[in-house]
Design a protein that fits this description.
402 residues, alpha/beta, Aspartate Aminotransferase, domain 2, 2 domains, 7-stranded mixed β-sheet, 14 helices, 12 strands
Length: 402
């Protein structure tokens, strides 16, 4: 056997997102890309803002010696200063550059955090539905994922979380705006979650970390205010990237920000610097560090995603789908009209509509529909959605009412 049994087993249950992406590529090759309606992969469709290209050009033509050499594992001081200043401005907390580690995207950040935090067999709570790779990130570093379902509105179920926290619990991963639901946790929800963890820390005599995954923080609609978790809980570690807000998923640039009020903040940063190096990242890409430091206040055109959300949400609701209106990110997470979400995904695939089953996010009975797609494709897909819904016996709400 050329690869380990563990990796072979994990490949077998690996991310449905990538699986559907690969199946979509094969389908496009067979029937033509224009005849496939691909809502599977959360790949930002928008190009970066103009300010990014201006900063990139300036950085790429700078011939100052040493700019492309190794730097400290936590990243350039000037970049960490810019990041810390932004966190301090938004939160009112005294973030400094030594609270920041520049990373290879949010995925790199989460792996660095898990590597630095976890002892073998310790548990990390995942709130389902959750990003499909979280379980693998925890397992990478000897941890055990402990899955807790959210409530009917995809908000944290505090009672269930309280019951899941035990002596082996080390951290809770919070993802808001959420992938795959688009849910944004309210200030009161985050405050209650912080109070719960504080109480459990006192009860168990341990330190519990709230690890936030925030790549969609800037992608919110309808004047929704996204709470800063660090304002409600001291032991917060923020992980994020610029894959979504600047449209840079391929550049792999993100960061970790440890709350200045977190227990053992300096030791945490030291451990994360070591993990950044020994996981093989060494440091975040030098060129991108210099570029993003200049454009931290910029975002892509969020209104494009809002228009796509409104069109697809209204269309699916009109066809009879039970789906909540996303408050952020760029996903819908409708219930499937049959219990088997994988079978429903396969049925949609017969109409060349590509989605991802909720099973891949820890919540069967739903599908994820990504609306980070070209507007023309979305509009062309609407009659195909209608045809698929009719063939599967779905009824619009008005028809059901009669």
């Amino acid at each position: 056997m050329p690869i380990s049994r563990k990796i072979l087993e994990q490949i077998g249950r690996a991310s449905w997102i990538r699986r559907m992406f690969e199946e979509g590529r094969a389908l496009k090759a067979r029937v033509g890309e224009a005849n496939v309606y691909d809502f599977s992969l959360g790949n930002p469709i928008l190009e970066p803002p103009e300010e990014f290209f201006e900063a990139l050009e300036a950085a790429a033509t700078d011939r100052t010696p040493g700019l492309h050499r190794y730097m400290t594992n936590v990243g350039f001081l000037e970049t960490r200063t810019a990041v810390a200043d932004r966190h301090a401005l938004e939160s009112g907390l005294p973030y400094r550059p030594d609270h920041v580690v520049m990373t290879v995207g949010a995925a790199g950040a989460l792996n660095v955090v898990m590597k630095a935090l976890l002892n073998e067999g310790e548990e990390v709570i995942l709130l389902a539905p959750y990003f499909a790779e979280y379980g693998f990130y925890v397992d990478n570093h000897g941890g055990i994922p402990r899955v807790v379902q959210t409530d009917a509105h995809f908000d944290p179920d505090l009672t269930a979380i309280e019951g899941a926290i035990g002596p082996k619990t080390r951290a809770l991963i919070v993802n808001t705006p959420n992938n795959p639901t688009g849910r944004v946790y309210s200030h009161s929800t985050v405050e209650a979650l912080g109070r719960l963890l504080e109480a459990k820390q006192r009860e168990l005599g341990t330190t519990l970390y709230m690890v936030t995954d925030e790549p969609y923080r800037a992608l919110v609609y309808d004047d929704i205010d996204v709470p800063l978790v660090a304002n409600y809980y001291r032991n917060t570690i923020t992980c994020t990237s610029h894959s979504k807000d600047l449209g840079l998923p391929g550049e792999r640039i993100g960061h970790i920000a440890v709350s200045p009020e977190a227990a053992d903040a300096a030791e945490l940063i030291n451990g994360m610097a070591f993990a950044n190096r020994t996981l093989g990242f060494v440091n975040a890409p030098a060129l991108m560090q210099r570029v993003v430091a200049e454009v931290l206040e910029c975002t892509v055109d969020v209104d494009f995603y809002r228009r796509n959300r409104d069109t697809l949400y209204d269309a699916l609701r009109g066809l009879g789908f039970d789906v909540q209106r996303p408050q952020g990110a760029f996903y819908l997470f409708p219930k499937t009209p049959i219990a088997d979400d994988v079978a429903f995904v396969r049925a949609l695939q017969q109409h060349h509509i590509l989605t991802v089953p909720g099973s891949g996010f820890g919540t069967p009975g739903y599908i994820r529909v990504c609306y980070s797609v070209e507007r023309d494709m979305l509009e062309r897909s609407l009659p195909v959605w209608q045809k698929a819904a009719l063939e599967m016996g779905m009824e619009p709400p008005k028809a059901r009412a009669r």
